[in-house]
């Protein structure tokens, strides 16, 4: 903006600086608040939830429960929205969540080729690489190569299936339960379930590697 | 459950040219700056209020990403919330919640407010920041 005060430069040194992006975000928030479209307190609550309560641990809980409880697993694969909701993780976006199960013969990976649709309510916010053009394009073309980048090598007879998320349908991978975890509790198992294992770019931690 | 949505890798072999490898990050906070969180939350709040549907949001966001790519954005995921913010501005104006002129007026007012606020103090907007 124009400021023709000759002392402007001097004053500016002592003033505050907001980046162009910060200015635009503040402008938007002020206008929307004044017009009653958003409530700053509600925005804070959303941010707080995503920074603290909503994250991959929610998805990990559902996965661990499915490993232990065959009935829950059936329910999760039949209707993940409902099964995840029963754990108290309701979706804010009203989308349809689908759980896809890994087996020795089939490995699932999720991607959003168009933008970054992601199961926020169970995995939190997407990692930077999930939103990157290389991941979005390469996963579809060369899933095995992408897995290699993530340090994952699968047996050659394991098929890989890639699921493209949309605004209406999002996916979560139900990884295979690691061997050597017989008799483990749900909480212990949940510790092994990583975010990447639910996107399909990783595998659950091995029992010995758990923190 | 339907398997029809699964992508056939062979059918999608369209841009098979060498793409750089994917930057991996540690599991951790995903908002790098507070404004990213604000922009994220505004989209959720506006959706809940019914200003747009998620399919509308996704279509606009993917269009913004394409535009940015065409303009030379490396689209590594780092600039993602910039696309998000462009999408927000576009949808609020398209839906008539505000207009470009108002956005620009408030942007200038915030710039003025920042300018007159001593460094380190919270920046607040006052009526005097408008209409200069």
Count every helix of chain A, treating DSSP H or I runs of 4 or more residues as helices.
11
The value of Rg of chain A in angstroms is 22 Å
Oligomeric nature of the chains: heterodimer
* Alpha carbon gap, first and last residue of chain B: 60 Å
Largest sheet of chain A: 2 strands, parallel
Let me know the largest β-sheet of chain B.
Answer: none
Give the name of the CATH architecture of the largest domain in chain A. Alpha-Beta Complex
Number of strands of chain B: 1
Spatial gap, N to C terminus of chain A: 53 Å
Gross morphology of chain A is globular
| Overall structural domain count of chain A | 2
CATH topology of the largest domain in chain A: Nitrile Hydratase, Chain A
Order of helices and strands of chain B: EHHHH
Give me the side-by-side strand order of the main sheet of chain A: 1-4
Report the helical percentage of chain B: 40-55%
In DSSP terms, counting alpha (H) and pi (I) runs of 4 or more, how many helices of chain B?
4
Order of SSEs of chain A, N→C? HHHHHHEEHHHEEHH
Mean of residue pLDDT of chain B? 80
CATH class categorisation of the largest domain in chain A: Alpha Beta
Low-confidence stretches of chain A: 1-12
Strand segment tally of chain A: 4
